[in-house]
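S.,

Sequence below, as promised.
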Amino acid sequence: MGNIRHSRIATHYHRLKRRAGQIFSELLKASLLLAIILVITALLIGGYSHIMSTPYFSIRETNVRGVKELTEKDVLTLAGLKPAQNLLAVNADVIRDRVGKNPWIKDVFVGRELPKRLVIEVRERTAIALLKKDDGFYLMDAEGLVFKKLEAGDGSDLTALTGCHREGRLNQQLLMKSIELFRYLSTAESLFPFKSIAEVNGDEILGFSIFTDGGLCLRLGFDHYDNKIKRLKPVLADLGKRNIDLKYVMIDLADPAKITVQKRHILAPAAPGLPAKGYRT
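The prediction came back faster than expected:
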């Protein structure tokens, strides 16, 4: 009986000893693996820190592309880059947000050309008209976005758009219709260049009237502008034969089948402070 008990105890002891050896072996392997991971991590951190601080990747040139209304200096000031900043450490998203705050900027791309060049490429908005609001004129792009109040230094040779903003309210539907008219006038081979149009006045009932720098008023109404402008040529030819000064003329083309010509008096500009020679009948 005693031998059997002694044999069981010995067996249990050897089993525990083997298990302890296995546990120690596993702990040793885990410790070795952890040490390797720590060494690799330290090397990576050290390497990253070295790369981020080495003069080799310091910005030596910043290339600004796509500016027209703004200057390279304007963009660099907005970007807020530090002298000799590491190219790889530059936060492109931050620069993009800073530059994009300027109302002229539509899109911004920030890229790196290793080892020393940072590229900031911008796409600016293109103003097509000066929208008249209650408190002044605002630049408007081809999508109908009113993005900036007209200030000293902004180009003021744009056509003024009046009538779309009345008593503090913007008529969005009339505004979008004006975009169609501007698109047509800028591409059509009409009898007068687009740049000679001083003002486009919109009315939700009567449609659009345009005023040239010379004072001629053309009432176009809505839609079918190409057909209406084509009907204008013989009318102008007839007025020329009569030696009628177009500065005192309003031609109603809203109904191409019934064109009327009226003399008119030159009144005050369509809006105080209008940066172009627009006249209202």
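Residues 178 and 202 are 7 Å apart (CA to CA).

Coffee later?
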